[in-house]
TrEMBL record:
Pathway terms, separated by semicolons: Quinol/quinone metabolism; menaquinone biosynthesis; menaquinol from 1,4-dihydroxy-2-naphthoate: step 2/2
Annotated S-adenosyl-L-methionine binding sites: 70, 90, 118-119
InterPro entries (UniProt xref): SAM-dependent_MTases_sf, UbiE/COQ5_MeTrFase, UbiE/COQ5_MeTrFase_CS
EC number(s) per entry: 2.1.1.163
Enzyme class (EC, first level): transferase
Protein name: Demethylmenaquinone methyltransferase
Reactions catalysed: a 2-demethylmenaquinol + S-adenosyl-L-methionine = a menaquinol + S-adenosyl-L-homocysteine + H(+)
GO biological process, one term: menaquinone biosynthetic process
Amino acid sequence: MNYKVESVTPYDSDKPKKEQVTQMFDLVAPNYDKLNRILSLGIDDYWRREALGVLKKYPHSHILDIATGTGDFAILANKILKPEKITAVDISVGMMAVGVEKVKAKGYENVISFENQDCAEMTFSDNTFDAAIAAFGVRNFEDIDKSFSEVLRVLKPGGVFVFIELTTPEKSPMKDLHKFYTNNVVPLFSGLFTTEQKAYEYLPASIGAFPQGRNMMLILKKNGFTNIRLRRLTLGITTIYIAEK
């Protein structure tokens, strides 16, 4: 099945979404962390912590961090959960290069490793990971069904997939405030960094097209996950999805 968000791309180009997203993140990588903190008003760290708290009751010795970007989620997971190993994957080499340096600076190289992998076609064996996590990356998938099926495949039986996504609040006034912020304030700030402007025009478009709430839960169910639930944060600006194998 094709989902609307899969056709939302950063550039007006005939290239596949995967190639466009890779190009975009390679370009924004040097300023990504700084601008992300500004645009999220620093709340993104709280969102990540809440999501990782879910994993405490599940086995998490070996964690797969999907669409790791600059490695923030993997670094925080290591700090909070103390796993034996975290394998962080992404299609953007530029973003991971920033992550590698951050991991080295913290002395986490013995736990966190980076691999250039497309989550729709991973090279890992079946039943490899205890848990899979992703922060704000599912919107960028070129094929959500194929990617979710791959995540299920590489998870061990009883494993859990926890991901966070930016979502649209359902009720006013937060719904109206969110619309104003994403459509006006986000492009204004990103315009200060000329290379990032296109990326942050893509942001509100991808949020608006993303399957949310019950629709996302049904997609997870269709792709084989069970015991699926969600938790909304900050009045619906962000949602945590939890699904088990």
